[in-house]
Write a structure and sequence with these properties.
The chain has two helices and seven strands, in the order E-E-E-H-E-E-H-E-E. The protein is an alpha+beta fold and 98 residues long. The chain has one domain. The strands form two sheets. A five-stranded antiparallel β-sheet has the order 3-2-6-4-5, covered by helices on one side. It has a two-stranded antiparallel ribbon with strand order 1-7. Strand 2 and strand 3 form a beta hairpin. The longest helix is centred in the last third of the chain and has 11 residues.
Length: 98
């Protein structure tokens, strides 16, 4: 598994992937606050995300959180990298096809 802050920097083969904004964790460090957040992202509500630690994948749905809170949920679970899933097209999965 790879986590890149900028998808344009990826080089190599790809068998499955997802891209979205904002990133939440990079190397275990909270990065959500380094991005410009929309009003909806900065407000409290139900949020979802995907995170990794080695070969472990975390899928989280959290209620009454903003993006910074969601990042800290992943951090407390031990994820090293995490990404917001906004509930739109980014929640779709490409795995050998859409």
């Amino acid at each position: 598994m790879n986590f890149l802050i900028n998808a344009n920097s990826f080089s190599g083969g790809l068998s499955a992937g997802t891209v979205n904004h904002p990133g939440l964790l990079d190397g275990g460090n909270v990065i959500a606050e380094t991005f410009g957040l929309s009003e909806k992202q900065a407000s409290k509500g139900t949020k979802s995300g995907i995170g990794i630690r080695g070969s472990v994948i975390y899928l989280v749905i959290a209620r009454s959180v903003d993006m910074l809170d969601l990042a800290h949920v992943f951090k407390s679970l031990g994820a090293t990298h995490a990404l917001n899933l906004d509930g739109g097209g980014s929640v779709a999965l490409w795995f050998g096809g859409y």
